[in-house]
Specification:
Blueprint: E1 5-8, E2 11-14, H1 17-46, H2 51-72, H3 77-81, H4 90-103, H5 106-112, E3 122-123, H6 126-139, E4 147-151, E5 155-163, E6 182-189, E7 191-200, H7 201-206, H8 209-234, E8 250-253, H9 260-269, H10 272-275, E9 279-282, H11 284-290, E10 302-303, E11 313-314, E12 317-321, E13 329-333, H12 335-338, E14 339-344, E15 348-352, H13 356-360, E16 363-376, E17 382-386
Helix pairs in contact: 4-5, 4-8, 6-8
Length: about 400
């Protein structure tokens, strides 16, 4: 530890803490005296009075000016509501949309987002939906794994190949044997999902526009992302999209205690053409067991990713943690080919202050409705290990 010292007669004299504090105090006093002396000299030389006071007043004025400028940069929702819609940025437009929805300003709502949803709510501007879905995609586990397709109606029929056509070799001038292919059908049916947040009236009235928009988008994105993970993984297919656990896919059972041989059986159950982009999908507890598996040379088969944000691998395949997958199953497959998530492009908002919770606590209830569909469309691309 370096101690402070002073030089006296060519020698170092070390100071203790008390002496250092006294020295610092002395230095401050000397600076103050020097400033006063300089101010007095300037006053005497120029024949002026109050130079020091003028400098202090100037410093205070500059500080007030800086504070006023910072305050003027805070744009409230009320300020934005008074601007012309044509001059609003995308972010400002979203803030004004929420303000108009909360105030039930039908004229401004119509100008910002044409049309009224079938269930009576107001349609979101496309910009809001894009912002929300982008945030959902960054948070959710399952949406980036599966294939997301836009839907313009509530039900979509998807043909699937259930039996492959046969191929024949023929010689010249020989009649060709006819062959057929059997097609099945997968159905995507849209279901409605609603998320509600409560915001205080003070927050709505007083917050800066960016703060309110970011808050609403973040809260809804987190809730919707979690629910999407839940239904893509285990939706019942009756009141929700059909999840992986409710779909019929090929499986192999654990033989005895769960070990690496079971993983090999699962890997080879999946056709080779789907292995290239295959990933494991497992609960946290099953991943804990998988991390302890070793090869014949006592080396762990689990490998953490050297790239931040990328999943770890097991036996060379990425592993995605998902606790909505039960502990008795592990999935392995190409989910982009095997599972489709139907994205209905209508998203609505409803606002109320009339519920008991909102009224008694001076809150505004904001309800967002998303409509999605989901189903396994190619069972051949997804397999599972059971009895884990």
């Amino acid at each position: 530890m370096n101690k402070k010292f002073i030089m006296q007669d060519g020698k170092k004299i070390y100071l203790d803490e008390k002496e250092i504090q006294e020295e610092a105090s002395t230095e401050d006093e000397e600076v103050e005296k020097a400033a006063d002396k300089l101010a007095a000299a300037v006053e005497s030389k120029l024949g002026l009075k109050g130079i020091k006071e003028k400098f202090e007043a100037l410093e205070v004025a500059e500080q007030k000016k800086a504070n006023a400028k910072r305050k003027s940069n805070i744009i409230t929702l009320q300020d934005l509501s008074e601007k012309s819609i044509d001059t609003l940025t995308v972010r400002e437009g979203l803030a004004v949309f929420f303000k108009a929805a909360i105030d039930n300003d039908k004229v401004k709502l119509k100008a910002l987002a044409e049309g009224v949803a079938a269930d009576g709510g107001n349609l979101f501007p496309d910009e809001f939906r894009a912002e929300l879905i982008r945030d959902v995609a960054e948070i959710t586990v399952m949406r980036p794994l599966v294939r997301v397709i836009p839907m313009t109606k509530d039900v979509m029929k998807i043909p699937t190949l259930s039996a492959k056509p046969l191929v024949y070799w023929t010689t010249e001038n020989t009649a060709k044997t006819t062959t057929t292919a059997d097609f099945g059908q997968a159905t995507l049916t849209v279901f409605k999902m609603a998320a509600i947040i409560y915001a205080s009236d003070e927050l709505i009235e007083d917050s800066a526009e960016i703060d309110v928009v970011d808050l609403i988008i973040t809260l809804f994105a987190e809730r919707i992302a979690d629910e999407e993970d839940k239904v893509i993984s285990g939706g019942n297919g009756t009141t929700q999209p059909t999840g992986l656990t409710a779909a019929t896919v090929g499986s192999v059972a654990v033989s005895g205690n769960f070990d690496f041989d079971d993983i090999i059986n699962l890997e080879y159950l999946l056709p080779a053409k789907y292995s290239r982009n295959a990933k494991f999908l497992a609960s946290r507890n099953n991943i804990k067991v998988m991390r302890q598996f070793k090869d014949s040379n006592n080396r762990y088969l689990w490998m953490d990713s050297p790239v931040a944000g990328q999943p770890a691998t097991f036996h060379g395949y990425p592993v995605i943690e998902n606790d909505y997958i039960g502990e008795n199953e592990i999935y392995f497959g190409d989910y982009q080919k095997g599972y489709w998530l139907g994205d209905r492009r209508k998203m609505t908002i409803k606002i109320t202050q009339d519920s008991e919770t909102a009224f008694t606590k001076d809150q505004t209830a904001i309800r967002v409705v998303e409509r999605i569909a989901g189903n396994v469309v190619l069972a051949e691309a997804i397999k599972k290990l059971t009895g884990v």
